[in-house]
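Q: Sequence in, structure out?
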Amino acid sequence: MTTASVLVTGSAGRLGRAAVAALVEAGVSVRGFDRLPTPGLPDATVAELTDAAAVRAAARGVRCVIHLAAAPDDARYPRGPAPDDGDNFLSHLVPANVVGLYHVMEACRQGGVPRVVLASSGQVVDGHFDGGNLPATVTTRPTPRYLYACTKVFLEAVGGVYARGHGLDVLSVRLGWCPRDAGQVAEIAADPDNQDVFLSPADAGRFFERTANAPWSGHHVVYATSRPVHRLCYDLAPAARLLGWTPRDCWPEGVED
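A: Exactly. Output:
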């Protein structure tokens, strides 16, 4: 394992690849961590988040961990009546998003990693879309969409605990929707609300580069989306103030990147 200054977990995913590319372009030495091999990144651990020893080894010696790895959503939403009422809470969400998060934060605490960036989700304030209480701000009361979003409320709370209790600089980012496949692109195209929370890979990459390199400290929550088409759903001003980042793209710009 070579020397790296930033660890990106979930480095083989859509957001992870965007973050790695932007960091490398900015001259940052990057290490990856994913359950799958990371294309084009020689220094990348292939392991599960539940492997505490692998997480500790990957985080050793870095100055920043950008934690993107997670079980990405609910298996079904909305859930139907029995027998079509299964979920992935115990099988996927708890191992990756609860236990895995704990291993990452402990690796940072034990290894003296000073800066941690945690991928939360705009789904934590999803209930405010129905009531029209928008744009959601960093102080908007959480109204999580379903069980996946509940794990992200937990993630933000854990980030605060480690910031206050162990002196880590922690940034929780409530991300918009960076589509992973053609089906998700079609979902965004069909719904104006989805278009307004779209996050292009290029905007995501620039955002995560700033989380690693901008001179921020303390504990913060911010939102990150591309520019809205119809209305502002999330308050992007805190990210601009803290990181010097503003989005450039607007749906559907960059969706094919």
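The two ends are 30 Å apart (CA to CA).
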